[in-house]
Amino acid sequence: MSTVRLEVSGAVARVVLDRPDALNIYNLEMRDELIEAFGAVRELPEVRSIVLAAEGRHFSAGADLGEFGSAGSIFEARRIRWRRDPWSGLLNSDKPSVAALHGYALGAGFEMALMCDFRLAGPDTVLGLPETKLGMLPSAGGSQTLARAVGPAQATWLVMTADNISATEALAAGLVHRVVDDVDAEAMELARGLASVDPAVMTAARRQLRGAPQPAGWGSSTTS
Question: Which residue ranges form the domains of the chain, and what is each CATH number?
Answer without folding.
Answer: 4-210 (3.90.226.10)
